Structures are given as C-alpha cells and as structure tokens.
Amino acid sequence: MSRLTRHPILVVGMIVFLVVIGLVAFRLTTGAKTDSVKTRVITVGVASPIRQDLDIRLGYTADISPYQVVNIFSRVDGYIAKLHVDKGDFVKPNQLLVEIDHTDYLHAVNQAKANLSAAKAKVAQQDAVVRNATLTFDRMQTLIKDQFVSQQDLDNAQVNLDAARAAQDSLQAQVKQMEVALAQSQTNLAYSYIRAPFAGYIAERNLDTGAYVSSATASTSTMSRGIMSLHDINTVRVLFEVVERDIPLVTVGQKAELRAEAYPDHIFEGTVTRIVQALNRATRTMTVEVDLPNSDRRLKGGMFARVEVLVGTHHQALQIPIDAVSRLEDTQYVYVVRDGKARRVEVEVGARSNNRIEVIKGLRGDESVIVSGKDLVHDGRPVQTQPLNAVKHET
C-alpha cells in the first residue's frame, strides 16, 4: 500500500492547501484589475464661471382672460326676431347684434305720439280760455271804477281766470307726462335693437331665433348665460397667485413675460397692472394681474400660460451652468479640476436664469467647473478636461 493511501488525512490537507493557494492567487489577480479600472483617467467637460448681470424672475402658472367679458341680455320682453351675428364673429362698437320683435313697441311709440298731440291740443284750447278770462277780468276792473259793474261781477271774473289758469297748468302737466311716456316707449323700441357695447368676438350664442327673452332674467340673475357672450381680447388679463413670501417683491409697473403653450417659441411682454391688496385665506396667496397688448388677437381667453415677473437684478453675479450643481440631502456641491484631479467644493446658490445659476459662496470665479461627467468622478480622481462644447460634440 502506498504512503498516500495509508495517510488519507494528509491527502485531504494537501488538497485544501492547493485550493487556498488558488483562491488567493485569483483574488490578487482580480484586485489588480479592479485597481487598474479605478485609476483609469476619464474625460470630463468643464466650463468657467462667468460674471454678468442676472435678472431675478418669479415664475407662476396663469390663466389668460379677456380684458372685458359681457353676457348680452334683453332689456325688454319679447321674441328674438333676428340674430345678426354668430359664434366667432368679430363685432365693432355699437354694431347691431340682435333684434327683438318690436311690433308692440312701435305701436306704443305711435300711441304715445298720438296722446301727446291730443294733450298739446287741449293745452292750446285752454290757452284760449285763459286769454278770454283775462280779458273779462281786465274789463271788469275798468268798469268797476265807474260803477258800471258790481264787486260781485269782478270777483266772479277773478274766479273764472284763476280756474282757467289752474286747468291750463293741469293740461301742461299732462303734456309733460305724455312726453315722458313717449320717451319711454321710444327707449323700449331702441332696446329691442341690441347692440355691442364694445368691440370683440362673439364667444357664445345660447339662443336661437324665436326664443322668448325677458328683461326680468337680466335683472334677477347675474349668473344667467344670456343670449350671447362678447369677449374683448384686444388686451388680455393674466391672473396669477403670488405666494406670501414673494408678495414684497411684486409691485405695479414691473415687466412681465408670458409664454403660452399654443406659442412655445414666442414671448409676450406686459406689465404688472393691478395687485389685490388682500390674501386669500384658504391659499394664503395674493392675486396679481398683468395686462398684455394683444392687437393680433393670438391670445385667447381660457388659455394656460407661464408668466415670469422681473422683480430685480443682481449685478455682476457669479454664474455657472445649472447642470454642474449636485445635491446631497441639504448640501449642494460642484466638482472643480485642480492639478489634474476632481475636487468636490460645497457651494451656496442663489437665483436662476435659463440654464445658469448664481453661486453666492464657494467659488472664486477662476475655477474649471465639471459639468459633463460629474456623476463619474469623486473627490481626488484624476481627470482629463475638455471644453464643455467639445465633449458634447464628441458624444
């Protein structure tokens, strides 16, 4: 029997020893490769901070509203005889929109004219009576001096004159009443022709020809839709809510820029026109209004928009690309290149403008800040640098 078969424990021990040696050699080989990967130099895109004026803007979502909106009602009762406009039509001030059946109102005007003529005729007739009573009274005053008439006759003449004048005043008052009635009937007739109070577009038409309308609807229901709706969009209002902490920054007259989803490549310019000097108790926000000229009428009521208000300027602010800034919990930091290695630097940032952000603390302004590839480096790692535009072109 061989020595190996006589000592099986020795054989097992040798096998274990060889396995251990192999594992150690494998780990050493693997570790060397890992180290070589970790020490590989990568190329990063860098940019230098710049100093220039930075506009401070507050951004909000907003709704676009017409400058004026009115629901058209009828001030008289009747059936709609004719609609002169429809949805989408542009109308001028005082343009005829709707005709209410005015047959009854025309008859009322003619009746009022006839009543006025009759009242004036009665006044003319009474004028003659007054003149006759005046002549009689004057004659009696002359005759009583020679005692041709009695005092009783003079008194009767005075009474007749006073009665004639009183009747004259009553008839003249009736004439005035008839004139008022005629004016009212003419006004009602005019109201049967509904005209545009201002220029704008017909946004809604809610009734058709033949529908009955009542003046009582307009006077008792401010929420009623009316016959049609007229929108003035030559200027539009942009309403947005400012949070409480930003209220001191917003003032009337500040410039504002608006971007609408319908025109993503166009910037509309306006000014802060009105500020509601009270906060909404539910949201703790304050309503601010910006008026925008809209002579080409591209902006429509109901559009959704993003508005930015220019509230100030930081002069010669130190700025870097916003993509260079990383965040870890409450800490913000950037990587800069020093002596061929990436170095982590904590920074304090301020306002943003487009793709740049202001650095308040942490940088001097002469560093090379890593923008592209910052997620591949750590503090102390060797790097090669290229201008940011060149790295983007390679990729």
Alpha plus pi helix count:
6
* Cα radius of gyration in angstroms: 47 Å
Portion of residues within helices: 25-40%
What is the structural class? alpha+beta
Q: What is the terminal-to-terminal distance?
A: 71 Å
Unreliable runs: 32-37, 390-395
The CATH class of the largest domain: Mainly Beta
β-strand amount = 35-45%
Return the average pLDDT rounded to an integer.
Answer: 86
Identify the strand order in the major beta sheet.
Answer: 2-9-12-11-10-13
Overall 3D shape = rod-shaped
Got a strand count?
20
Summed up, the domain count is 4
Question: What composes the largest sheet?
Answer: 6 strands, antiparallel, barrel
- Shape-level CATH architecture of the largest domain: Beta Barrel
Order of helices and strands: HHEEEEEHHEEEHEEEEEEEEEEEEH
Note down, in words, how this protein is organized:
With 395 residues, this protein is α+β, with helices and mostly antiparallel strands. It folds into 4 domains: 42-54 and 315-394, conserved putative lor/sdh protein from methanococcus maripaludis s2 fold, CATH 2.40.420.20; 60-66 and 235-314, Efflux pump adaptor protein, beta barrel domain (Elongation Factor Tu (Ef-tu), domain 3); 74-101 and 192-226, OB fold (Dihydrolipoamide Acetyltransferase, E2P); 102-191. Helices cover 33% and strands 39% of the residues. It contains 6 helices and 20 strands. It has helices at 3-6, 8-38, 103-145, 151-191, 215-220, 388-394; strands at residues 42-47, 50-72, 78-83, 90-91, 96-100, 193-195, 200-205, 212-213, 228-243, 255-260, 263-275, 285-293, 304-321, 326-328, 331-338, 341-346, 348-353, 356-361, 369-372, 383-387. The strands form 4 sheets. It has a 6-stranded antiparallel barrel. A hairpin with a 2-residue loop joins strand 14 (326-328) and strand 15. Helix 3 runs antiparallel to helix 4 (151-191). The longest helix is centred in the first third of the chain and has 43 residues, at 103-145. The two termini are 71 Å apart. Residues 32-37 and 390-395 have low confidence and may be disordered.
